[in-house]
Q: What sequence folds into this?
């Protein structure tokens, strides 16, 4: 009998992700991959997978899934409200960041994230997913990756293989950073902006708007004045770049960003603070702190040590 989860409700933005699809940006294909690398690592560690194993990423509201087939060791990482509903209809409150066993006929109802955006669902051995250029990551805008490059849909089946079940349950303490200070380095066009606007960017608060998704995060706050040119020759860009279009309101580019862009960039979020940034919900207030390369490198070393310690 095949092993699969039936999707009874897909959730708002549920896709399969891994660490990304690299080496293709010159062809217009962005790496994509998981939004929150820390929680992605954690979800796989909880079930005994290698850290690069594909996982189900969800935003705000996750899916409702029903298991058919063999039992599996599973885990949900993040700040997540979810229930496990057994085949008799009994409901058990789920616990994030610790593994549990699902049996045939059980349902997992990922109701919502809590004061955050993204969470992950992993099972031991992983899901049966097809790779595109050595990655299962779904890039919806380009229709590339698992599930035919699409978000999950109602009544679809998610298949998986198990030869044995990892029986060891795990639990990890995960400290979420709740402060709203995001460290950045100067962008390539930092000097395009007036001294006052440079000062405002690092002293005033900016609000996360509802115009935010895996591609970018639009901010609202003190208008940033461009004194040189509102456009530049298109050049390669990376996630974390903070562009300033003609309206003077910053846009932080996220994991599904375009491969090139023609707006001046005032700053770039350091890697160590990217996970914290993407978990900020609409209406959150952010402050940006300018740091130099040595601080960014030290922060990256600490960040890497943290996620490898799970």
A:
């Amino acid at each position: 009998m095949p092993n699969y989860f039936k999707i009874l409700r897909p959730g708002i933005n549920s896709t399969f992700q891994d660490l990304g699809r690299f080496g293709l940006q010159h062809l217009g294909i962005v790496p994509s991959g998981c939004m929150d690398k820390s929680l992605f690592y954690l979800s796989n560690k909880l079930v005994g997978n290698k850290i690069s194993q594909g996982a189900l990423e969800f935003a705000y509201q996750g899916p409702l899934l029903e298991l058919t087939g063999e039992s599996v060791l599973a885990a949900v990482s993040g700040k997540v409200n979810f229930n496990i509903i057994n085949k008799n209809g009994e409901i058990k409150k789920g616990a994030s960041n610790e593994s549990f066993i699902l049996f045939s006929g059980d349902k997992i109802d990922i109701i919502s994230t809590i004061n955050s955006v993204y969470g992950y669902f992993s099972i031991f051995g992983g899901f049966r997913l097809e790779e595109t250029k050595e990655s299962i990551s779904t890039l919806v805008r380009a229709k590339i990756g698992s599930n035919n490059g699409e978000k999950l849909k109602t009544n679809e089946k998610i298949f998986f293989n198990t030869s044995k079940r990892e029986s060891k349950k795990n639990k990890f303490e995960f400290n979420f950073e709740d402060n709203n200070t995001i460290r950045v380095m100067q962008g390539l066009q930092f000097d395009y902006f007036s001294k006052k606007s440079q000062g405002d960017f690092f002293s005033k608060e900016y609000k996360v708007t509802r115009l935010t998704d895996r591609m970018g995060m639009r901010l609202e706050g003190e208008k940033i004045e461009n004194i040189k040119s509102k456009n530049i020759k298109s050049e390669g860009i990376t996630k974390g770049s903070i562009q300033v279009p003609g309206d003077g309101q910053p846009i932080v580019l996220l994991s599904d960003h375009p491969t090139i862009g023609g707006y001046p960039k005032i700053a770039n979020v350091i890697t160590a603070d990217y996970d914290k940034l993407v978990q900020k919900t609409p209406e959150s207030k952010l402050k940006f702190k300018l740091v130099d390369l040595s601080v960014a490198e030290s922060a990256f070393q600490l960040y890497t040590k943290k996620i490898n310690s799970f």
Q: What stands out?
A: The chain has five helices and 20 strands. The chain has two domains: 4-159, 181-308.
